[in-house]
Specification:
alpha+beta
Length: 130
């Protein structure tokens, strides 16, 4: 699980954004956040915040790629099958995450996106959708 202090600090650093405040309240159990809040918070934090969710046996990691101007997600199925997809807009990513369970925030540094070498080493197992 993500470092609690790291997630709190990241959310507090960007608390000028309403969506980030809503995610902080959901994270601390003092309020709630919508799926749109979570996706908007990823972009508002410049991609430093990501989300992870469960889809049956798979984990779905999602993040904002500021240099590419898009949202990205990776679905990781045991044992190490990966599917990925880029989304030009928030709604595209929301449609994927809407069908998941246990949506939670995580620092980008704790996702598979953080180490391109890791993803590159699994490229023979990766299936990217258009």
């Amino acid at each position: 699980m993500a470092d609690d202090d790291g997630v709190r600090a990241l959310l507090l650093d960007h608390s000028d954004q309403q969506a980030v405040r809503n995610v902080f309240e959901a994270y601390t159990g003092t309020g709630s956040a919508t799926l749109t809040d979570y996706v908007t918070a990823m972009r508002a934090t410049g991609g430093d915040l990501a989300v992870v969710a469960s889809d049956g046996a798979a984990d779905i990691y999602a993040c904002w790629n500021g240099s590419g101007g898009r949202y990205e997600h990776l679905t990781v199925w045991p044992p190490w099958s990966i599917g990925g997809y880029d989304h030009a807009d928030r709604a595209g990513l929301e449609s994927v995450l809407d069908a998941t369970d246990d949506l939670r925030v995580i620092p980008h540094s704790e996702t598979p996106f953080a180490e391109p070498g890791t993803l590159g080493s699994l490229s023979h197992r990766t299936e990217l959708q258009p």
